[in-house]
Amino acid sequence: xxxxxxxxxxxxxxxxxxxxxxxxxxxxxxxxxxxxxxxxxxxxxxxxxxxxxxxxxxxxxxxxxxxxxxxxxxxxxxxxxxxxxxxxxxxxxxxxxxxxxxxxxxxxxxxxxxxxxxxxxxxxxxxxxxxxxxxxxxxxxxxxxxxxxxxxxxxxxxxxxxxxxxxxxxxxxxxxxxxxxxxxxxxxxxxxxxxxxxxxxxxxxxxxxxxxxxxxxxxxxxxxxxxxxxxxxxxxxxxxxxxxxxxxxxxxxxxxxxxxxxxxxxxxxxxxxxxxxxxxxxxxxxxxxxxxxxxxxxxxxxxxxxxxxxxxxxxxxxxxxxxxxxxxxxxxxxxxxxxxxxxxxxxxxxxxxxxxxxxxxxxxxxxxxxxxxxxxxxxxxxxxxxxxxxxxxxxxxxxxxxxxxxxxxxxxxxxxxxxxxxxxxxxxxxxxxxxxxxxxxxxxxxxxxxxxxxxxxxxxxxxxxxxxxxxxxxxxxxxxxxxxxxxxxxxxxxxxxxxxxxxxxx
Length: 506
What we know:
Keywords: DNA-directed RNA polymerase, Nucleus, Transcription. With 506 residues, this protein is mainly alpha-helical. It has 23 helices and 13 strands.
């Protein structure tokens, strides 16, 4: 793990959990797996604070533990990649809201905020929130929403200790991961009405958490569908979406390539849906265009019954990675540099003189841009020696080439640095305007309390006028700046996710 990545992890922990948890997390990031006493020795924090910090990190699945050689002690390991996922929480909520509705979004939001929870407690909490928002709901409705999330594998059961040891060994069988506990609606309704205590919940000790892998599967599919929608049109995107959906019936979600999917299945689904008539009318043409696309997503696997197609996820993400890097070169330098990069990519190995001829760029500029890309590690060089037949001096050939995996890893480091800069800038904006922000929060709290007590609008207006017009202008500017930074943060994370998927398939 790089130093820049460590700085990003440190800022996320500081922002969400405070300086003590951040100090414990930073130590584990820097020194790796360690027991409690080592953490206490090097961080110089009180033992109680370290234990509390580790409990918080374990609760949110940011730290794991295993038994030490001494079975009474545990070794703790930080999961930095899991910490980075905290930046994607808004995306997870938005994804669930679009697919399942507001109740499901609240369920996911509560689990993300608390790390894990029992189904009964979660259902009751969501009902309480819906009532505050004056939304009609019932125990059975929220319970069905929870079940839907479990069936779709967005929620998964937490492992639990199977024996009584000083350091518990948390385990769970695969067939237990998605078994929903038997919960009586009447008992939950009685607890919700205050007729029964929380001790009566039927699923005590059965905890649920987020299955991030399932969310990432959807995000990966969205990248593919969006790519074909932008390249071709909405009908092509719909075709790819249905193809991916049918793939999961026959193939593991993260396989490099799928088992053959009969193309007539896709056609039958489109015919039944009756929503994409143009796709149905020009079905064969869409299949041919997508098959010939340079992303290499699908290839024909057979001729019987109209043919079957295989989906090649690994090939597609190799092309997506190439396109992403090419776009970065274009934006960071210029179109001539991007042309040189594409030329080296197409030729695989090429001499400097050939670049000048084939790229149709003046020799001096082509040389400057080639060595600029080399200096920035977008290109690499390889030297080949050819000996002379008359025992003369050896002749050396210099060839430019691209190591995509190396370039992707370098680009990821740049993305982490950008994230760090964005988060630092956000903290700076909040710090220099802390007085006005705190004042605004205090005024909003007083106004809210007065509304709840039934105060008149004139009284509330008097309170709100404590914020002067110049202060309102400053607050509006801060709000616009923070929104822009948050948007850029999410966009950078999209690039990180795409590049991580590419590396996962390697």
